[in-house]
Description:
This protein is an alpha/beta fold. The chain has helices at residues 2-29, 57-69, 102-112, 123-138, 146-157, 163-174, 192-203, 216-223, 274-283, 299-306, 330-342, 350-353; strands spanning 84-87, 181-182, 207-215, 233-242, 261-269, 290-293, 314-319, 346-349, 363-364. The chain is built from 12 helices and 9 strands. Helix 11 links the parallel strand 7 and strand 8. Helix 4 (123-138) crosses helix 5 (146-157).
Amino acid sequence: MKQMKLWMFAAILTILCGATTFTSCNKTDNPVVPSPTPTPTPTPVQRDFFPNWNKCEALTRLQDYVEDVTNPKSANFISAEDRIATFDMDGTFVGELYPTYFEYNMLEYRALDDPKYKDQAPDDVREAAQDIRDFVRHGKKLPDHFDMKHARAAAKAYAGMTIAEFDAYVKAYADFPANGFKGMTYGESFYKPMLDVFDYLKANGFTFYVVSGSDRFICRSLVESIGIEPNRVIGMDVMLKSNNQGDNEGVNFTMSKDEYLIRTDSLLIKNLKTNKVKQISQEIGKVPVLSFGNSSGDQAMHNYCLSNEKYRTAVFMLVADDDVRDHADLEEGAKREAKWRENGYTVISMKNDFKTIYGYNVVKTDFTFPEGE
């Protein structure tokens, strides 16, 4: 009996020890894992959109405006499809002081220096080119309404070229060294701070258009290198036609798939002043909310922007007031600045607001011209 009790006690003890061991194994197989320490979310790095700008009133106004109209909680919020910005080209984001507009320089070369064309240039084309030469080399005042004289002459000077041939001609001339500068071609003469503005507006959902007085196809050729699509360019226009169209009106002629477009000598529109407004209305179909320019030819475009009753608007005028890094006429610049401020436009000073104009490797030099011309 005593042995039986001892045996039973030993059996119970074995069972208890086994249960303890089993429980211990369960704990080992399913350990309690402590919750990981949350990784702190890194603070996003704010992109510096304006490396080529000094801190200035104009930049502050632009940033304040964009931050306001892109804020969904703001009473001035503008939906992305209506964030339309318009930019003049020459003197607004492309140089125009080398020594004058790109398209003026190119016509002067075409009619007076191009060995493949100069001997066949019509008299009126040569006359317009000589007016430009006398202006840039001898300071002779351009004739009144020269913008129209030039436009008609330019229409003739490039008539018969295909779209591709004209594009190649513009780009070939753009590869020439820019007169009055070292380290830059005409095609590289973009104002670096204004390229910053393009990047900033694009990042904030704006659609921008080039609205220039220069030939639309010249503008397209020049801005291609900075990524502006051709359908975002408005400018002076000449009539185009099919190479086999002859004297037939387009409405009476059916172009075949084997034909191609050529330029004619018929001027359709010089895109300045109120013509800019007409073109914006016809081609964009919306009133801009933001506008940039530099001359009296841009005032109508600015005023059209300011007339937008639906949205908050802002307009900016560049002033060429830097005669160290560019060939500015300081007296003219001061007159323009006073006028733009009086009109309520925000002034951008190239001298004070831009850290660089064309890039730090570009140096202003004296103009040089061949002797005896």
